[in-house]
From TrEMBL:
Its EC number is 2.7.13.3. It comes from Ancylobacter novellus. Residues 266-482 form the Histidine kinase domain. This is histidine kinase. Keywords: ATP-binding, Kinase, Membrane, Nucleotide-binding, Phosphoprotein, Transferase, Transmembrane, Transmembrane helix, Two-component regulatory system. InterPro entries: HATPase_C_sf, HATPase_dom, His_kinase_dom, HisK_dim/P_dom, HisK_dim/P_sf, MASE4, Sig_transdc_His_kin-like_C.
Length: 493
C-alpha cells in the first residue's frame, strides 16, 4: 500500500463517531453474550462477554484522551494516556478470549444466572476502572509509547507482536479444543484484529491518523461487528423457529380438536341411522303385538331387525374408532361385489316404502380389495341413504337409483351410485366432502367426510358429479388386491 503511511488532515474529528460505534457494538455484544449465558449457563460465555465489556469500557477514556480530539474543551490527559489505554485493550481482550477457550463447556455454572452475570460485570468494571485510575493518576510515570501526538516510540513496537501472539494462541486453542460455531466466529474476530494491527502498526508505519491507520480502524470496526451480527442472526433464527414451533403446536392442537369434533359428530351422525331404524322396528313390533290377534312372526322379524341394527351400531362405533386410532385398523381381503350387493339389499327395505327402485349393475368377477369390511360397508350404506334422501325429496318419477361396480381401465375397482334427484348445487360442489357441509335440512355434514376419510385411508379416491339429464353420481375407486397367479387363473375360469 504505497499511501498507507500518508498522514490525513483533520480526520481526528471522526474519532468520536468511530469510538461511539465501537463502544455500542462491543457493549451490545457483551449484553447478548451474557443473555446467552443465562440460558446455557456456560462459564466460557461469561469470560467472553466480560472481554467485550472490558474492551468497551476502555473506549470512552481512549477517545477522550486522544490528543487534539477534545482539546477545544480543555481536555488534555497527557501524551501517553491514549497509548497506555490502547495497549490495555490490545492485550486485555485476547486474555479474556484465552480464558473463554480454556474454560470448561460441559459443566454448567452452579450459581444463579443473575449472580454470575452481576459478579462478572462488577469484576470487569472494577478491573477496567483500576486500569484507568492507574493511567490517569500516574500520567507522568507511564511508559513512553509515543514520541509525539502521531509517532510511536520503539517501546510500542513490542505491543503489536505480543498482541498478535495472544491472538494466534487464542485461534489455536479454539480450533483444537472445541470448534463450536461461535468458536469459528471468534477466530474470525481475532484474525480481523490481526489484520487491523498489521495495517496500523506496520503498513501504516504506526503513524496515527494515516491512511493505513484508518484502514486498520475500519477492520477493527468490522471485527467488533462480527459476533454481534452472528448473535443477532442466530437470535432471529431461534425466534423464527420458536414462532414456527408454536404455530405448528397450535395447528396440531386445532387439528386434534377438529378430529375430536369430527369423531363425535361422526358417531352421532352414523349412530342416528341405526337408532332410527331400531325405533321404527320397535314401533312396528308393538303394533303387531297390539293387534287383537298378535302377529308373533311379524313381531319376531321386527325384533330381529332391532338386534341386527344394534350389532350394526356397535360395528359402526368400532369402525369409526379404528379410523382415528393408529395401528388398529383390521383389514382383510374383501369381495367388494358381495359388499355392494349386501348394502343394496339392506337399503332396499327403506327404498320400497318410498317407491324407489334400486337397480344394480355389478360385475361378479370383480377382483378382491384389501380393506375394513365394516368401514367400506358403511360407506356404501351412507351413499345409498344419501341417494334415497335425494330422490325422496323430488317430484321426479320414476324414482330410481342405480349402483354399478366394475373394474376400470387402470385396474382399480370402481363403484358408482347414481340417482335422479335434484343434483348437487354449485354452492357446495367443491366443499361437498368437507366436514360440517350438508345440503339436507338438519344434516350434520359428516357422512361424506367420513366416506372420504375411509376411502382415502384405503388408498382410493372418491368424487361426485352430475347425472344427466338430472341427478347426481357419487363414485369411488379402490385398488385391487394383488392375487397370486394361481388364484387369478382360478378366478378367470
Amino acid at each position: 500500500m504505497p499511501f498507507a503511511r500518508t498522514p490525513t488532515a483533520h480526520t481526528e474529528l471522526l474519532l468520536p463517531a468511530y469510538a461511539a460505534a465501537i463502544f455500542l457494538l462491543e457493549l451490545i455484544t457483551a449484553a447478548l453474550l451474557f443473555s446467552l449465558y443465562s440460558v446455557q449457563r456456560s462459564r466460557a460465555l461469561l469470560f467472553l462477554g466480560s472481554g467485550y465489556l472490558f474492551s468497551a469500557l476502555l473506549v470512552p477514556a481512549w477517545v477522550l484522551s486522544f490528543p487534539g480530539v477534545f482539546s477545544a474543551f480543555g481536555i488534555d490527559l497527557g501524551l501517553q494516556a491514549t497509548a497506555a489505554i490502547a495497549a490495555a485493550r490490545r492485550l486485555g481482550f485476547p486474555l479474556f478470549v484465552l480464558a473463554y477457550a480454556l474454560a470448561p463447556r460441559r459443566a454448567p455454572a452452579r450459581e444463579s444466572a443473575r449472580l454470575g452475570i452481576g459478579g462478572a460485570v462488577l469484576a470487569t468494571s472494577a478491573g477496567a476502572g483500576l486500569i484507568l485510575a492507574l493511567v490517569f493518576s500516574n500520567r507522568d510515570a507511564l511508559p513512553p509509547f509515543m514520541l509525539d501526538a502521531r509517532q510511536v516510540s520503539v517501546l510500542w513496537s513490542f505491543v503489536p507482536p505480543l498482541a498478535v501472539g495472544l491472538y494466534l494462541a487464542g485461534i489455536a486453542l479454539l480450533l483444537t479444543r472445541h470448534r463450536s460455531q461461535l468458536d469459528i466466529w471468534i477466530c474470525l474476530v481475532l484474525f480481523s484484529l490481526i489484520i487491523e494491527l498489521l495495517l496500523i502498526s506496520y503498513l501504516g508505519g504506526a503513524t496515527r491518523l494515516s491512511v493505513g491507520w484508518w484502514a486498520g480502524r475500519l477492520y477493527g470496526l468490522v471485527a467488533a461487528s462480527i459476533v454481534l451480527l452472528v448473535l443477532l442472526s442466530e437470535s432471529t433464527l431461534v425466534y423464527a423457529r420458536l414462532a414456527r414451533t408454536i404455530a405448528t403446536e397450535r395447528r396440531t392442537r386445532q387439528n386434534r380438536l377438529t378430529a375430536m369434533e369430527a369423531l363425535s359428530a361422526s358417531i352421532a351422525h352414523e349412530i342416528n341411522q341405526p337408532l332410527a331404524s331400531m325405533t321404527t322396528n320397535a314401533d312396528a313390533a308393538l303394533r303387531w303385538l297390539a293387534k287383537s290377534e298378535p302377529r308373533l312372526d311379524k313381531a319376531n322379524d321386527a325384533l330381529s331387525r332391532i338386534v341386527a341394527d344394534g350389532h350394526r351400531a356397535s360395528a359402526i362405533v368400532a369402525g369409526i374408532r379404528s379410523m382415528f386410532t393408529t395401528g388398529s385398523q383390521e383389514r382383510a381381503e374383501l369381495d367388494l361385489a358381495a359388499l355392494v350387493t349386501g348394502a343394496v339389499r339392506a337399503a332396499h327395505a327403506e327404498a320400497v316404502h318410498e317407491f324407489i327402485d334400486i337397480d344394480t349393475d355389478v360385475d361378479k368377477s370383480l377382483p378382491c380389495v384389501i380393506g375394513n369390511a365394516v368401514q367400506l360397508n358403511h360407506v356404501l350404506r351412507n351413499l345409498l341413504e344419501n341417494a334415497i334422501d335425494a330422490v325422496r325429496g323430488t317430484g321426479q318419477w320414476p324414482r330410481r337409483i342405480v349402483v354399478r361396480a366394475h373394474r376400470d381401465a387402470s385396474g382399480d375397482v370402481h363403484v358408482r351410485v347414481e340417482d335422479n334427484g335434484p343434483g348437487i348445487s354449485d354452492a357446495v360442489a367443491e366443499r361437498l366432502f368437507d366436514p360440517f357441509v350438508s345440503t339436507k335440512p338438519g344434516g350434520m355434514g359428516m357422512g361424506l367426510m367420513f366416506c372420504r376419510t375411509v376411502i382415502e385411508a384405503h388408498g382410493g379416491r372418491i368424487g361426485a358429479g352430475a347425472n344427466h339429464p338430472h341427478g347426481a353420481i357419487f363414485h369411488f375407486s379402490l385398488p385391487a388386491a394383488i392375487l397370486p397367479a394361481v388364484e387369478e387363473r382360478e378366478r378367470a375360469r
